[in-house]
Structure formats: C-alpha cells, structure tokens
Amino acid sequence: MGFISYLIDGISLGSVYALIALGYTMVYGIAKMLNFAHGDVIMIGGYTVYTIVSTMGLSPWLGMAASVVVCTVLGVAVEKIAYKPLRMASPLAVLITAIGVSYFLQNMGLLIFTASPKAFTSVVSISNIKLADGALNISGVTLVTIITCIIIMIALMFFIKKTKAGRAMVAVSEDKGAALLMGIDVNSTISLTFAIGSGLAAVAGFLLCSAYPTLTPYTGAMPGIKAFVAAVFGGIGSIPGAFIGGILLGIIEILSKAYISSQLSDAIVFLVLILVLLIKPTGILGKEIHEKV
Amino acid sequence: MRDKKLNKTFKNNLITYLIVIISYALVQAMILSGNLSSLMQGLLVPICTYVIMALALNLVVGVLGELSLGHAGFMCVGAFSSAFFSKLTLEAIPNAGLRFFLALLIGAVCAAIFGIIIGIPVLRLKGDYLAIVTLAFGEIIKNFINVMYVGKDSNGFHFSIKDVASLNMEDDGLVIINGAQGITGTPTDSNFTIGVLLILFTLFVVLNLTNSRTGRAIMSIRDNRIAAESVGINITKYKLMAFAISAGLAGIGGVLYAHNLSTLTALPKNFGYNMSIMFLVFVVLGGIGNMRGSIIAAVVLTLLPELLRGLSDYRMLIYAVVLIAMMIFTSAPSMIEYREKIMAKFGKNKVSKEAE
Amino acid sequence: MKKKIVSVLLAATLAVMSLAGCGNQASDKTSTAEGKNEVEAEEGTFLIGGIGPVTGELAIYGMAERNGAQIAVDEINEAGGVNGTKLTFNFQDDEGDAEKSVNAYNNLKDWGMQILCGTVTSTPCIAVAAKSSQDNLFQITPSGSAADCIGPDNAFRVCFSDPDQGTKSAEYIGENKLAKKVAIIYDSSDVYSSGITDKFVKEAEEQDFEIVAKEAFTADNKTDFSVQIKKAQSEGADLVFLPIYYSQAALILQQANSLGFETTFFGCDGLDGILGVENFDQKLAEGVMLLTPFAADATDELTKNFVAKYKEEYGEVPNQFAADGYDAIYAIAAALEKGECKPDMSVSDICEAMKKAMTEISIEGLTGEKITWDESGAPDKEAKAVVIKDGAYSLME
Fold first, then answer.
1. Is residue B190 a contact partner of residue B256, using CB atoms and an 8 Å limit?
2. Bridging pattern class, strands C379-380 and C264-267
3. For site-directed labelling of A31, which of A150, B4, B263, C375 has its Cα 20 to 30 A away?
4. Would residue C25 count as lying in a domain?
C-alpha cells in the first residue's frame, strides 16, 4: 500500500510539472527559444489570484480569469519589448535576455509584494478522495490538475493540427523564411505563441499555488527549472512528451525520496534524466534529428 | 596572405594580453597611491575568478560551439578539492605560496578529470540536450557535496554521506568537509597578483589552443562536423580535449574562489545553475568566441551590481533592466544597423577602409 | 562585419565602464556625493553598518533585521543618542552570499563604518568575521547562528548558536517527556538546519526518546513534503522536530493536515513568524511548540511597543529576526556607553573598548530579559518554550 500511496504523490507532483512544461514546450516548439522567464510569469499569475481573491475578497473565478488576462498581456508585452528586437540574432542572445526578464520579474515581485510568504487559498474546492479506508488519499487539486493538463494537451494538439493559426505556427517553427513567403505573418504568429504560453503559465500558476500554497517572489523559479527538465525528458517541443515527462519526473522524484535517500533525490532525478538522454538523445517522444549533409 | 593573417591574430592577441597587464598596472598604481576604495580592492579577486570562468566557458561555447550550463559544477569541484587540500596541509606546508600552487594543481586536475568523466557520455548529445545534461551534472555535483562528510583522525580518513556522527572518528578527529556547512577555515592564500597571473595563464592556454592545429581541428568540428569527420579529424578526441581543458580552467577559477573567502559552502547561490548561467551571460554579452569581450563583460557585470548599491532596494531591478538593454544593444540586428549608420556619419574614414 | 560588431561592442562596454568609473570615483571622494538613497555618513556620529540579504530567497530575514535595527537606531537618537552622540545606520544587501557579503562589508568600510551589526545569515557571517578581525572592527551578528560566526574575538552574537538550539531542544523534549518517538524533517542543504539537526541527534542519545525518522529536503526541493511526512507518520512519530524556517514549515503543516497526520510539531527560532504568514490558516499551527527567544504576542511593555512601532512603520508583524536586529543595536549602544567611546576614536580603539565593555553590560532586550555576554561572544539568555494556542503564542510551563 505504501508504494501505491507514494505513486499517487508522485503523480500529484508530476501533474504540476506537466502543466508548467506544456507552456514551456509550446513556446520552445514554435519560437525555438528557452523562455527562462516562464517560471516567473507563473509567479505573477499566482500573485494576481492572491490579490483578487484574498486581498480584495472577490470570487476565485474572477481571480482566475484576471490572472489569465494579466499573464497573457505580460507575455505579449515581454515578447514585444525584449525578445522581438532579437528575432534574427543568435538564439543564445535571446536566452540571456530571457534570463534578464526573469530577474526583472522576480525583483518586481519583491518590490510590490515584499519577501514575506503569503498563504494561498486554494481555488479548488473539491474535497480529497479517500480510498482503501483512508490509506490512499488523492487530493482534489491533483484531480483538477491532471484533468486540466489533459484538456490543455488535447486542445493544443487540436489547435496546432486543425486550425489555420495553429498550422501557421508549425510553418513558422519549421522555416521562418518559407512561412513568410507563404504569406504568414511571422511576427503575429510568434506573439500568439507567447500569448498562449503565458496564458497557460497563469493556469499553472494558480494550480501550483493551490497544490503548494505558499507564495513568494521566487515561487516560480524552481518549478520552472524542473518543468524545463520535464520538457526535455519528454522530448522538448512535443506536447504529449511534456505531459509524460512531467508525470515521470514527479514519480521519480517522490520514489527516490521514499526509497533511496531524501537528501540525494535531486541528484537521482538528474541522473535518471542523463541516462534517458543517453539512451534516447532527444527525449522520450522527441523527434529524431536528421543530419543534413 | 597566410603570414599576414597570422600576424593579425598575433597582434590581436597581444592587445588582449596588454589590456590585462596595463589594467593590472593601473590598479596597482591606484592601490599604492591610496585611490582605490576598499570595495574595489575586495572585488579584485572575485573579478579575476569570473574572468577566468568566462574564458573557460568561452572555450566550450565559442571555440567548440557547444552550450554548457554546468561550469559552476567544475568550479565547485576545483574549489572543494583545493580547499580540502589547503585545510589539510595548513600546518604541514607553512609556505602559503607553495601550498597555493599545489592546491591549484589539485583543483585544476580534479576538475579536468570530472570534465573527462562527464564529457565522455555527454558530448554525444547536441544543442539544448547537451546544455540540459551539463546543467544536470552541475546540480548532481552540488547535491553530492552537500551530503558529503569527510573527517581525519589518527586512524586516517573517514567518509560518510549521512552525518558527522557516522564518521566514527576518534576524539582527536577533525571534520574537514561538514556536509552543507562545507569547509570553514580555508587559508585566504589568493590575492590580486595571483589572480592576474592566472588570468594570463588561462588566456595563454585558450589563445594558443585556438591558434594551433588542435584549435583549428576543434573549430572545424564546430563549423561543419561532417566535413571535419570526412577529412579524418577524430571528433570525440578533440571535443573531449576542449571540454576537459575548459573544465580544468574552471577548476582554477574555483581554486581562486575558495582561497579568497574563509568559508566555502555549495549553495544554489554560488555553485548552482544560476551561476553557470551567469558565466554564459559573460560569454554571450562579450561576444561568443571573443576572449577579450569575455574579459570585459565579466569585469563590467561583476562591478555593475556593486556600483548600483546606491539605489538600495531598486538595485537588482535596475541590474536586470541594464542586462536586457545591453543584450538588445549589442545583439539586435536593428540596433547594429542603427549604430553602423551613426558610425558611418562620424567616421567615414573607417567605413571606406573596411570596404576595401 | 564581425569585426565591426566586436569593435562597437567594445566601444559600448567601454562607455559603460567609464560611466561606472565616474560613479565610483565620486563615491570614493566623499560619501556625501553618493546617490540620494544612500545614507549620509554624518560627522560626529557613530557609523554603524548592517549587512544581510534584502533581495533573493532569504530577503525576508534581511529586511526584518534591517527594519528592527532601524527602529532601535531611531529610538536611541530620539532619546539623545549614546552619551549625546547620535547613531547613523547604513544597511547593505548581500543576497545571502558570502562573496557579496564581503563586498558589502568593503563598501561599508568606504562609507566609514565603525561598528558592524551583521551579518544576518551564517555562511556570509563567517566570511565577513574573518575580514573584520583583520581590521579589528567590532562586529555583532544579530542572527548568524553557526558556531564559527563568532570565531574571532571581535565578533559577538545576539541569537543562540545552532549547536545550542539542537541540544536545548532535545533536552527540553526529553525532560518534559513530550514524546517517545521523534521524527526530524530538516533542510540538508542549509547551514542553520543541518547544524541544529546534528546536535539534536547527538543529544537525543542521552535522552529518553528515540529518533524514528530523519528525513531531509534541499533548497532545490522544498515544495513537496509528502514523502517526509508519510515516513514520520508510518513510523508512528508522536512528535516531529522541525529545525527549519517558517515558510517551509507552513507548507509542512498544510500538507500534514491534508494527509490527516495529527502529531505535535516542535521547532526552533526559525519557526517564529509562522503566524505572521499572510492569509495562513492559523488553526493548522494550533499546538505547535517552539523554542524561541522572542514572541511577538508577549505582553511586556518592551515587546508591545516594538510590535506597535514595527506595524506602523512597515505594516507587518515583526518576527524574531527583527527583534534580533533591535537587540543588537541596543547592545552596541550599551557597549559604546560603557566603553566610553567617542566617534572620533579609531575603529580599532572602539573595537578594543567595546570588546571589554560587552562582557560587562547586561541589556533588557526583546529576545531575553537580562542578556549578558562572555568573552567568546556568545550571549547568555533563557530560551522560552512557547506553544501556539488560539492563534497566539503562550509560554509553556
């Protein structure tokens, strides 16, 4: 029974990683950039809900809607100001700018909301499910997170494969020049990608904070990196890969804490990641890279 | 033609060395005349450390053309192995210079060995996947050092990854590495002169490597792997060589770091991925593959947050803004074009020269 | 093309450097020429420096200490200063990093610092103490609790040391028979937490209880505690020892609650502040015990005044770190008075006088009724064990 209960914990943690990883992988897949600021957009999403629900006392639904709007606007603004001028520059230059944006958002959060942690009121009101006489415990947040993940995953896949805007995204990710020649507005397509990615970050933000209800300006940083690892795990750029990678990462983390060593669990998670990448160099569901001769 | 080109690189390298030496002379003159503040004096050794780290990473990023996010890990290995040695031989070798020299060798060799161990599996990967795996290794190193307990007593060394109690030491035992509490009481053997000598050494290694047969082989792998392979260049060997040398140089940076402060701990702040990313910022901002640029970027970005102290609470916010602005200013195509226009107005001479 | 970019880049960086150089020169000449936010080094006052993290993950501790110390400085100045001499306080950020802390120390030296009230966290404190002992500059750390923080003889501290807290906690649990089976959840990557844990485990051998689980987490892994809690639960621990800071403890309490684990939680001074977490469900903290020198809900005049002032100035309930900062400034003031220091004395003379005076003074502080110091620099004060009852601290019998 112990094992199954740990497995459930792993899935709970993994579902949060998966949700964040979806946003990561989406932006990476289209814009081909590692958006290191993604974790900090999550933090802003969390604070938006906190301000509206806990400080102003309004409905959680309003908070969630506002958070998605705030993050989407923020994501598009950051893209316009910081990333767009560097579109034709080296990908590393954009990576460094993203790090700058990440520092900026953290310190902005620090100035506005101070460093004191805030306790976040869960936006999920579904109670825990207890199985096998209470030996197994599945929290309502976990259920909501997993369902949200699956819905987002399917919606994203549908959007990219079936809609015009989605196919434009794929075209931009494959070849910007050719897409431009085909009459696709590359700039607005990339803006749209950031808008969707940041909107997803808002969702990840309030679900992360509902599952682990302490909010500081640095709340998003570590889950952001873990989600990045999860996205690589599953094959970066692949949407179902992000989901699988996230869940697996959570399970490995919890099981290594439970059965090997709680001090070394970080090292074990990274070790497994390295092993996976050595066997399958582009992640679990990643596309093979064909070498051009 | 060939001679001319060689001459040009030689000249260029000479300028880089001269910049370092002249800056050193200037700073020394300022210290002697009492014109340098304590803050600046305290910053000299850290600046040297970060310059070395930027140069080491630029060897991997600029010359080898691979992205490493784990250089803080190699620095960590260099720092801990050398600090371990220095603390152990604090009484056995009373001569600080000799002790530091030996510590330096140990730190560099240990880090280079780690470079080889990590390089063998990792260098098969490419691009972002290589970056994430190096990041993973850096974090593993940090995590392991945080649970490592090493002590020494009359019976020899004791090692544990649990706690001090499980070292089972005699009463006369001395705990050298105390888990997360790290190593305290390292002698502060490093100073600015040593730091500058080490920068010159690092520069010498990197520049000579770049301009040698080996360096050209490495760069050919960067520019076109398949072409390089087809002319018989042993890709794995050269990649590994560049990676291990870079790791060894990062180890030197770590030795300098460890012997500047009397306490050494492996925190996310100093040896985590954030630090590796910081080194990458130096390299990218200074120009990938441009050693002189790396030096300048490392100096500027280390000084910047200290010079912004007057802004108190807004310090790190402004730092972030400046970082983004600098990045856009130096790398954005539109900005480069704009600057060229301005330059053309002011220096027609120069443009016509380059047009030739 | 490439060369051009490089040259432009060089020009740009050089421009930045020269600008930076200007700013620096200005600050070298006179400290009054510095930016507006900078504290001016007023002639004829005692210049006290403070160091701690006000950005980064540890910012909350540095900010609290800065605010607490500032209140003390203002109070002393309002009352006429020390022997008629006022105090000037300048607090610098170190991001919780040893190297940055030494930078901050050097910066304060340029400012003209005569006495150091810092640093807030342990690792930087050890590094700074090595520098301040070279300069023979008096240092008192409000909250640097690792044993080595007061290694040199010019360094004193206000808080308990980590080993002390570990030993005292184990003794307290054993002597009051609070539990038979104890589980520990600690941060293995943190100096404070692992320092306490080591001594706690050692002392536990002498005491009449058993440690059934010792589970760690790390700085990179501090959101999910389900495994650690379940281990403690399945081993049947009737007390969980939490030698950690309150932001993680708040998460542990929430997660233990949702797992239906009912037990006693026992912590050290790092747990203080848990009731101040905004929006925190205080019912969760009901019955939590902690060994702390300060409780914001204490009813003595001193604490009440301090808490009221702090709330008014900074809009928050002060935690133990704020109280440590406050007491450190009062200790400095008392030692300055006792040592008959004058602001025109050299740094080294002030240090010698204060070192001697420190062992002779006794102050009425927020973190102890009669705090005295010995030559090693450690304070002698009573730890209070408090339990959270109805959302407030109350002293345990």
1. yes
2. unpaired
3. A150
4. no
* Dist. CA B214–CA B205, nearest whole Å: 12
Q: Which of C112, C125, C114, C90 is nearest to C339 (CA)?
A: C114
All residues at 6 or more sequence positions from B68 whose CB lies less than 8 Å from its CB, including other chains: B57, B60, B61, B130, B131, B134, B243, B246, B276
- The predicted model scores a pTM of 0.88
CA distance C154 to chain A (A): 32
- Cα Rg for chain B, rounded, in angstroms? 22
Strand, helix or coil at C49? strand
Residue C37 lies in a domain: no
Regarding whether C275 and C236 lie in a shared domain, the answer is yes
C-chain residues within 8 Å CB-CB of A257?
227-228
Per-residue pLDDT of chain B (356 residues; tens, 9 = 90+): 556 666 788 888 899 999 999 999 999 999 998 888 888 999 999 999 999 999 999 999 999 988 899 999 999 999 999 999 999 888 888 888 899 999 999 999 999 999 999 999 888 887 778 888 898 999 999 988 988 888 888 877 888 877 777 777 777 778 888 888 889 888 888 889 999 999 999 999 999 998 888 888 888 888 888 888 888 888 888 999 999 999 999 999 999 999 998 889 888 888 988 899 899 999 999 988 899 999 999 999 999 988 888 777 788 899 999 999 988 888 888 888 887 888 777 765 544 444 43
Domain range for residue C96? 46-160+302-382
Tokens 């060395």 -> residue: B17
Paired with A130 in beta bridges are A137
Helices (H) and strands (E) in chain C, counts: 11, 15
Boundary-marking domain end, from C244, C272, C292: C292
Contact between chains at C215 and A12 (C-beta distance less than 8 A): no
Indicate yes or no: CB of C227 within 8 angstroms of CB of A263: no
Decide if C321 is inside a domain. Answer: yes
**B110-120 pLDDT, tens per residue?**
999 999 999 99
Looking at the structure of chain C, the number of domains it has is 2
Residue B102 amino acid letter: L
Does any domain span residue C14?
Answer: no
pLDDT value of position C21: 40
pLDDT in tens, B205-262: 999 998 888 888 888 888 888 888 888 888 888 999 999 999 999 999 999 999 998 8
Helix (H, G, I), strand (E, B) or coil at A290: coil
Query: Across the interface, do C226 and A12 touch by the CB < 8 Å criterion?
Result: yes
**Would you call B284 and A99 a contact, using CB atoms and an 8 Å cutoff?**
no
User: With contacts defined as CB-CB under 8 Å, which chain C residues touch A7?
Assistant: none
Q: Which chains lie within 8 Å of chain C at 3 or more CB pairs, if any? A: A, B
DSSP C220-250: TS-S--HHHHHHHHHTT-SEEEE-S-HHHHH
State ipTM.
0.88
Chain C stretch 258-277, residues whose beta carbon is closer than 8 A to a beta carbon of chain B: none
Same domain? For C268 and C338 the reply is: no
> Which of C119, C190, C191, C196 to mutate against chain B (most B CBs within 10 Å)?
C191
- Cα of C258 vs its chain's centroid, Å: 31
User: Between B and C, how many residue pairs show a Cβ–Cβ distance under 8 A?
Assistant: 166
Chain B residues 271-290 with a CB less than 8 Å from chain C = 272, 286-287, 290
CB of B39 within 8 Å of any CB in chain C? yes
Please tell me whether residues C286 and C342 are part of one structural domain: no
C-alpha to C-alpha distances, C302 to A52, C83, C298, C366, C373, nearest whole angstrom: 37, 22, 9, 7, 21
User: Are C52 and C76 in a shared domain?
Assistant: yes
Q: Do C174 and C140 belong together in one domain?
A: no
Residue C86 and residue C140 share a domain: yes
Same domain, yes or no, for C193 and C149? no
Same domain, C71 and C84: yes
Looking at this protein, which amino acid is placed at residue C187?
D
* Residue A73 touches chain B, beta carbons under 8 Å: no
